[in-house]
Design brief:
single chain, mainly alpha, 2 domains, two-stranded antiparallel sheet, 2 strands, globular
Length: 147
C-alpha cells in the first residue's frame, strides 16, 4: 500500500463497511484486522477524510491512516515471508514472549523510521539497514526501554 489518495479512499471504505458489519477478503480483511487491533481509532474513522490527518489520541499525535498503512506493509512482509528477515524477526520476538501487536509495532517502528528518513532525503529504502536493525531487536531490549 502507498500513502496516496487511492489508499486513503480504500481504507475509509473498509472502515465504513466494517462499521456496517460487512465481511471482506484478502487485503481488506487484513485492514479490518488492523482496525480491530486499534479500537481507539474507531471514532476517528467516522470522520471520513479528516481521519487521514494526524490527531491526538491517548495523549499522542497519531495519523490512523499512516499507522494503518504501516501495519499493512509490515503485515504483508510477514505473511509473504519477503523479505525473509522480517518473518524471522517476528517469529524470534514471539518466541521470546512478546505479544503479537507489540511485536508488529516494534518492527513497524524500525520500518517507519527508515522509510520516512530515506523518503525525506530522496533516497532508496535501505533494506540492509532494515535487516541490520531488526537483527538486533529483542524483547528484552523493549522491556528495558519500558522500565
Amino acid at each position: 500500500m502507498d500513502f496516496d489518495k487511492e489508499t486513503q479512499v480504500r481504507i475509509l471504505q473498509v472502515a465504513a463497511g466494517r462499521e456496517e458489519g460487512m465481511t471482506f477478503e484478502e487485503l481488506d480483511a487484513r485492514i479490518v484486522h488492523i482496525m480491530d487491533l486499534h479500537p481507539e481509532f474507531d471514532e476517528i474513522w467516522k470522520q471520513g477524510e479528516l481521519a487521514t490527518y494526524p490527531q491526538e489520541i491517548n495523549g499522542q499525535i497519531v495519523s490512523p491512516f499512516v499507522h494503518t498503512v504501516l501495519h499493512v506493509t509490515v503485515d504483508k512482509q510477514i505473511t509473504s515471508g519477503q523479505p525473509e528477515f522480517v518473518l524471522e524477526t517476528y517469529n524470534r520476538l514471539r518466541e521470546q514472549g512478546m505479544e503479537e501487536h507489540d511485536t508488529l509495532h516494534a518492527i513497524i517502528s524500525i520500518y517507519a523510521e527508515l522509510y520516512f528518513s530515506s523518503f525525506r532525503q530522496g533516497q532508496q529504502f535501505d533494506t540492509l539497514d532494515y535487516q541490520s536493525q531488526l537483527t538486533y531487536l529483542s524483547y528484552e531490549d523493549s522491556e528495558a526501554d519500558e522500565g
